[in-house]
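Model: You mentioned two targets. I'll fold them one after the other.
Researcher: Yes, keep them separate.
Model: Target one:
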Amino acid sequence: MLQDGLPAAGLGEASLGEAGPGEAGSGEADLGKASPAPTGDPLDDRIRLGLEGSFVDRLAIARKLAKILADWHAREVYHAELDASFVLLDAMNTVNLTGPETKEKSARGANIAAFGVILYSLLRNEVYTANRGSIPNLEELYQAGYSPGVVEILEKCFRDNGRYSGFREILRDLEEVDHASRETHRTPWNPQLVVIVVLGVLAALAVLSAVLLP
């Protein structure tokens, strides 16, 4: 795939320190062997069709993308036009990133802000379509009951002062929100189950009283 005359860069579900932009998984290009083309559907299309999954599932997609971008930035390679259309998602929720690259360090902050827009679109399950460079209204996320932690991540992606310095910081905060969310939902409270348990205890006490009392 070519974007603006530049070769597309493809990464799968990469962990930090693995394949770099345009590489298939080795630290050095293998001459004579073409890297496999990235696979998946554009994330913006998946969101428009109704992306399935829980809050934790959507965080996982964001974390995979952040890992890829952290790896790019570690090599001083940046995405020139980052948005959800360049993020590919397959049936197994493996994330690939395509699109034009740049070595311009000024793109670092733009990548972080663009990642914030993608994260916002994932959370809302709605592609944010305002003019490039505009900031979504985060107040509605608070009102909708989203985790304050994830809203704070978005705020730090969009700030002019106090913005994240890189994607490793974003990854750290995403992992903290993910851990807190999993702990919160580990043993969900079920009102019907509580009623059944209480009624069972009362019935057992009634039987026990009938046996013990003359």
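Model: Target two:
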Amino acid sequence: MKKILIIGGAGYIGTVVTEHFLSLGHQVICIDKFLYQNNFSIHSFLGNKNFRFIYGDMNDDKLTSKLLNEVSDVVILAGLVGDPITKKYPEIAHKINDLGLKKFIDNCNNKGLDRVVFVSTCSNYGLIKEDVVADENFILNPLSLYAKSKVEIENYIINLKDTVDYDSTILRFATAFGLSARMRFDLTVSDFVKNIYQVYSNNIVKGEPCLEARVETNPIKMPYPPAPSIGSIFENQKEVLGRSFGE
């Protein structure tokens, strides 16, 4: 059984990762500041004996040093996420996403950890042609402040190789989607699903029992099917995306 520290564990991805680790029987310690007033997102974990929540900051050296000595592995999800917010608050973003993360990573050494996982982003690749597949060796071309910070931290971690006593892993996530205890509808697929759901809901509330589709130039009236749940729409999108990538 592992004892895992998740920095930013109450967020969109963090809550899903927490649930997964707990389902495998691991112990999870979650640190989060509830920057987005998302304290509701951890309610379902509070009765689990293997879950422990700490309201705090990753740069509280006294706190993190104590916790790092208690755990076997670390997952780093904390930070200001996305281009809009880092563009709006560049100084705060630099303090958290660059200086803050480097400081925390430095604090991970000599704690007897097995592995430190840093969650990065596919935005590091910048714009690439549609027929090109980017892998780990693809040239990075970060365009946003958010992506530039992620590349900076990736390089920082890579340059620590053979100087730290733990193994490190960097994961470049594609745009996430799906259900979470801390939902985000500012992400592409999630926003698409929300809009579909709202179209169904709004038309049903308005008493409009049909939608109009056009075959060539002739309008066709079709009855609305029962409104789908957001979860079922996500599952459908997951199936479609899986087929697109040959899964």
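Researcher: Noted. Anything on target two?
Model: Residues 66 and 111 are 9 Å apart (CA to CA).
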